From TrEMBL:
<dbReference type="GO" id="GO:0002953">
    <property type="term" value="F:5'-deoxynucleotidase activity"/>
</dbReference>
<feature type="domain" description="N-acetyltransferase">
    <location>
        <begin position="199"/>
        <end position="328"/>
    </location>
</feature>
<dbReference type="InterPro" id="IPR039356">
    <property type="entry name" value="YfbR/HDDC2"/>
</dbReference>
<keyword id="KW-0479">Metal-binding</keyword>
<keyword id="KW-0378">Hydrolase</keyword>
<dbReference type="InterPro" id="IPR006674">
    <property type="entry name" value="HD_domain"/>
</dbReference>
<dbReference type="GO" id="GO:0046872">
    <property type="term" value="F:metal ion binding"/>
</dbReference>
<dbReference type="InterPro" id="IPR000182">
    <property type="entry name" value="GNAT_dom"/>
</dbReference>
<protein>
    <submittedName>
        <fullName>HD domain protein</fullName>
    </submittedName>
</protein>
<dbReference type="Pfam" id="PF13023">
    <property type="entry name" value="HD_3"/>
</dbReference>
<dbReference type="Pfam" id="PF13508">
    <property type="entry name" value="Acetyltransf_7"/>
</dbReference>
<dbReference type="GO" id="GO:0016747">
    <property type="term" value="F:acyltransferase activity, transferring groups other than amino-acyl groups"/>
</dbReference>
<dbReference type="InterPro" id="IPR016181">
    <property type="entry name" value="Acyl_CoA_acyltransferase"/>
</dbReference>
<dbReference type="GO" id="GO:0005737">
    <property type="term" value="C:cytoplasm"/>
</dbReference>
Length: 328
């Protein structure tokens, strides 16, 4: 590689030192993307003995370049990033890669394509570590730097990615416990103040069908349901609404139950704008006050850790007796 190409590429990489992330350091200042990349590489180096089957060089290279596009686009927090932002970052990476000679360019593009596809073991590991490093950084930062929505994100973010391997799954549980301990120690009073501004009601007269439809559109499981289907489901269930002091509906859940043996928990959701205020806990606490002594059933793809706090467990053995009929 000629000296001018090398220095030009180094100049682009330097921008990662100047680009700040949403995360804060333990000393109370904003973290740069370069600092996140550095510690992600340290993270990958520390766990390499746990993954002897992995190509450790490829893992390190993916860590090193996974946020390269942010040298051009800047950093966008996960809870704000849209599909168009991801496309712009990908386009930026390709433009930067064009600076390199053919060999290095092909290597870089191939690495990042594999990482985006997320199928290989190396790619899955990097995704798990990347998300976990951000969680660890938040645990190390003063809790006053957390946004309200991050109280729940610390317990749910990256669960799917960490579940790809037994080691990262166990490590994610330890990080989650650190988050819970930090919130209990430093953030409990703040969370309580936020929750006290809201209340939960089973009064069907207070339910707002239009708001429930809007909430369902934010979910991954019910965003395509028709308004009529949502209305019928509401009418045939015991429903819970979460409201602010002015009566504005910000959350919803429903159960199907005989109030004697079993309840089926469904459609638990808090408006995206109001997440991180402890309202999910407020809602579940109320539901469990009503039916917590009964046998409970639910389905979830990404919130298992949250429901485990209420006694729900995944029992693989039950798959042997579980039967389902698809809806027509």
């Amino acid at each position: 590689m000629d000296s001018r190409t090398l220095l030009d590429f180094m100049s682009v990489a330097e921008k990662l030192k100047c680009t700040v992330r949403h995360s804060w350091t333990s000393s109370g200042r904003r973290e740069s993307v370069a600092e996140h990349v550095y510690r992600l590489c340290v993270f990958a180096w520390l766990v390499q003995a746990e993954f002897p089957e992995m190509d450790s060089t490829k893992v390190m290279e993916m860590c090193l370049f996974h946020d390269l596009g942010e040298a051009v686009t800047g950093d966008i927090p996960c809870f704000e990033k849209q599909e168009k932002d991801s496309r712009e970052e990908e386009d930026a990476v390709h433009r930067v890669a064009e600076m390199l000679p053919d060999g290095e360019r092909r290597r870089l593009v191939s690495l990042l394509a594999e990482l985006k596809e997320g199928v290989s073991g190396e790619a899955k590991l990097v995704h798990a570590l990347d998300k976990m490093e951000a969680l660890i950084q938040h645990n190390e930062a003063p809790i006053r730097t957390w946004l309200p929505l991050e109280y729940e994100l610390q317990l749910t973010y990256g669960q799917k990615e960490a579940g790809a391997f037994p080691y990262t799954r166990q490590l994610r549980q330890t990080v989650e416990q650190d988050s819970a301990d930090k919130m209990a120690l430093e953030g409990a009073s703040e969370c309580q103040e936020q929750k006290e501004a809201f209340y939960v009601s089973r009064d069907k007269g207070k339910l707002d069908l239009k708001r429930i439809v809007e909430l369902m559109r934010q979910s991954y499981w019910a965003k395509t349901r028709s308004e009529e289907m949502i209305r019928k489901a509401m009418e045939g269930s015991v429903c819970y609404g979460v409201y602010d002091r002015d009566g504005y509906m910000v959350g919803y859940a429903r159960i199907i139950t005989d109030f004697a043996t079993t309840f089926y928990l469904m459609d638990v959701i808090i408006d995206e704008v109001y997440r991180g205020k402890g309202l999910g806990t407020l809602l579940m606490d109320r539901i469990m006050d009503d039916v917590g002594s009964l046998h409970g059933v639910l389905h979830t793809e990404d919130a298992g850790a949250f429901y485990e706090k209420y006694g729900f467990v995944r029992d693989r053995r039950r798959q042997e007796v579980l039967m389902e009929k698809e809806r027509k």
